[in-house]
Structures are given as structure tokens and as C-alpha cells.
Amino acid sequence: MWATDRQLANSMVGAAAAPPEPEEPLPSTQALVKDSNAADILKLFNLINEYRVSKSLAPLKYHATVAGMAQEWSDSIASREVIEHRANFWLDPRALSPDKGAGEVISINTIRDPALLVNWWKGSPGHNALLLDPRFNVMGAGITYTDSTYKIWGVVNFFGYSTLPAGTTTAPGGSTTDPGGAFPAPPPSLCDPTAKHMPPTLDLSAASINSAADIVTVNASGQLLNRPSTGAGTYGAAKAIGSGFGGAKEVFTTDWDRDGAYDLLTQWNSTGNLTLHRGLAGGGFQSPLTLGNGGWDSLKLAVGGWCANNRMPQILALDTAGNLYLYPNRGVADLATRVLVTSGVTAARITMVDYNADGFQDVLALRTDGAVVLYRGIGTTVLPAEVRATVATGWQDVTSVRPLRDVTALNSTGLALRRGTDVLQYWDLTSGKLASPSSIAGSWSGQRLAQ
């Protein structure tokens, strides 16, 4: 992706240069390996500068803040199994307001060697032009490792500045005042994972729920029904996978322990507790464990991968005063720790989904008047300060919402809406906005969606 001087001055609208097209399946979202990348960052930096000097261009300097932005995006695309540029990356505060051009290059390889990334960029005319752009004087790099087919993912951001921003160094880890590192260590937060979580190795074909596209409902008798996704927006027959959920306020299906089999998080009206039923690889669920004692029935919840640096699902909880909290995943420990994400939220229910297709989960707040307000997430414990857009209206008859993935194609994103007219709709979000809805065939009388 390349931003020209005019684009930087006039709303900075950029155009994308096509990334490499992989010929093999991309890595699992659980395949990230958190080894130190400092040596490879330095090697990448030196190779790019050696190439520039060989073409009689000035070497680039380095900035840890820019590198932190590149690293975040490298982790994001590797975990989401996609190769895409970050839209308007030069507007990010970590870009430090470049005024003489901006560019971004991305590459992946099956061998963990940053030299192969640089070689690919040099062999692509569009990417090579970015490596050799004379306007650029600062770069930042991010490298992510996986244990799947593609072992290394790399993102480099290039910027041109009339005046070098404070903190610019001659190389990764170099500074006149602070030795630093290849990119800055972020301050500790409740988003931080407690341990590494490797990909599941179990055969999960018999698990009661094993797809993010499955539609799970609770019927009037308290039975839990699953309709397995059969691809291209179609579903198999409903199958009872549990019972005794008539007293549940909400049931959420999520892989809480990241073993591949989907689990059940349940809010109970009777006790106010929040419980976890772990899914079994051979089908069914374990006996419930209590994660939260009392008071959970008063909250509106959403569950998903809110934190960009953490593959474990987390909980967002909206209280009656309009405060939105993040509860980190601590396994089967009591959910007693939380952090305020934002306040002033008005909603009859909330849903967590990547609405704008930027790789970060967002919050959709459905109000009683049927308006849906977007709260954009950036993968951290805070929200950007901005005007909240209304992205839909006329949803006052919606009784439940379920985020779905892989319904129409691999990595597709969307929402299933249970309407008051006994209709179940699918709204695709893969393009970064709501597409026209389609109806999902089936009998939905007396059923509500699990989320």
C-alpha cells in the first residue's frame, strides 16, 4: 500500500498493491509462536538498507513506535489467516504524522528467514518501488512466526518526514538515551495472555459444536439444538445437544479453553451465576463449572476475541449504568477481575463482531428503538475516542443476535438475527458493512439464538 504526498495532505486516501498469493493453505489461527523476533527484525532492517545503499539511496532510520504498529498488524493478519493491508495506516497516531509519503509491504514464507521476505519484495515491481522510494527516511517492522505451513509473516511500514520524530534511532534497539528493543514492550494489561496456547490436536468431528458457522438455539422446552453448517449458507437438520437450559438468560457458544471443541457459557436467571460447560471431543458437555457467582443476570454480555494479542476468548459486560467492562479469560478461575472499556453505552443487547473487517472485534449496541450503534474496537482495553456511528435501524423486533464465521466462505463474517416474525436472517459483514439480508430456511417457532 502506498500513500502519496497529495494523499497525505488530502485525507490520505491510499491504494493497495497486491500482496503475494499463497499456493498452500494459510496457518491456523492458533498457530502463532511467540519466539523473540529481535534478531530477524534487525536482519530485515539491515537487508533493506543494504539494498537501498546499493542503489545510491540514503539508509532508513528506525522508530520503535512505528515498529509497534507494524508488529500489531503482522500478528493480526497471521492470526486471522489473511493477507491484507491496514486501511489508512498512515492516519494511526503511531505513524507520527508523516508528511512526505507512506508505504506498507507484506510477505509470508514457508521458511523462517527474513531474507526471503526481502527477496520477494525486490522481485515485485510495486513493492520494490516502496523499498527504493527516496522520500522515505524511517521504517518500522513486524515479524510473526507460526508453527504451520507459513512459518514467517512480515510487515514493514515506511514513512517520510520533513523533521524526524522524537525517538528515531539509527537501527532497531539503538538510541542515544535508551537502548530499547526492536519494538517497545506494551504496558501490562488485562488483555495479556497468561500462557501459550497451541493448536488443538484432537479429532473434533464428533463434537456437539465444532464450527463457528453452526446455528445453536434454545427451544421452549429448554433443549439446546444445533444446526450444523453444511457450507455456502446451508444447514443440516437440528439435533438436540443438551437440555435444562430453560432457566438461562443467555447461552454463548465459544471455545473458552481453546481445545477446538466449543463450550457453553450460560447466564442463569435463577441464580444469577455464570457457568461453563466444557465441550467434549466425542460429543456432549461436561458438568457445569461456576465462573461467576451472583449478579451476572443483570449484565448484558458479549463473548469473543476482543484482545488482539490473546487468542483466548474474553467477555464484555454492560451493566445497568451503561458501563462496558472487559473480563479476561482466566480458565476456570472466578471472573472477579475486570477493566472499564468505556461508559455511556445505551443498549438492549450487545454483540461482539468484526463489523468493519479491520481484524479487530467491535461492539454493536442494539437499542430499544431498533437503532444499532457501532463501537469500534482496536484490540486493547480501550476504545478510540470518536463519534459512534449508527450502522442499522429498524431492528426493534430482533430478539437475539449470533455472530457467525465461515457461513458463505472461509473467513466470511456475519450475523444471524432472530426476528419477531419467526424469521431467521443472515447479514453478511465480510465487506466491512452490512450486506442485504437473506433468510435462513427452517422452523424457528419458540426458539431463541444462542450467541
Structure commentary:
By secondary structure, the protein is α+β, with helices and mostly antiparallel strands. Helix content is 12%, strand content 29%. It has five helices and 28 strands. The strands form seven sheets. Strands 1, 2, 3, 4, 5 and 6 form a six-stranded mixed β-sheet that branches. Strands 11-8-7-28 form a four-stranded antiparallel β-sheet, with no helix packed on it. A four-stranded antiparallel β-sheet has the order 12-13-14-15, with no helix packed on it. A hairpin with a 2-residue loop joins strand 9 (229-231) and strand 10. It is elongated, with a radius of gyration of 23 Å. The chain starts with a strand and ends with a strand.
Radius of gyration: 23 Å
How many helices in DSSP terms? 5
Instruction: Give the mean pLDDT.
Output: 87
Number of strands: 28
Class by SSE composition: alpha+beta
Are there runs of 5+ residues with pLDDT below 50, and where?
3-24, 175-185
Shape descriptor: elongated
Largest sheet: 6 strands, mixed
Helix fraction bin: 10-25%
The span between the termini is 36 Å
What fraction of residues sit in β-strands?
A: 25-35%
Concise summary:
With 451 residues, the protein is an alpha+beta fold.
Layout of helices and strands, plus pairs?
Layout lengths: L1 E2 L1 H5 L22 E2 L4 H17 L6 E2 L1 H17 L21 E8 L4 H10 L1 H7 L6 E9 L5 E8 L55 E4 L5 E4 L1 E3 L2 E2 L3 E4 L5 E7 L8 E6 L5 E4 L11 E4 L7 E5 L9 E5 L5 E4 L11 E4 L6 E5 L8 E5 L5 E4 L14 E3 L5 E8 L7 E7 L3 E6 L9 E2 L8 E2 L2
Parallel strand pairs: 3-5
Antiparallel strand pairs: 1-4, 2-5, 4-6, 5-6, 7-8, 7-28, 8-11, 9-10, 12-13, 13-14, 14-15, 16-17, 17-18, 18-19, 20-21, 21-22, 22-23, 24-25, 25-26, 26-27
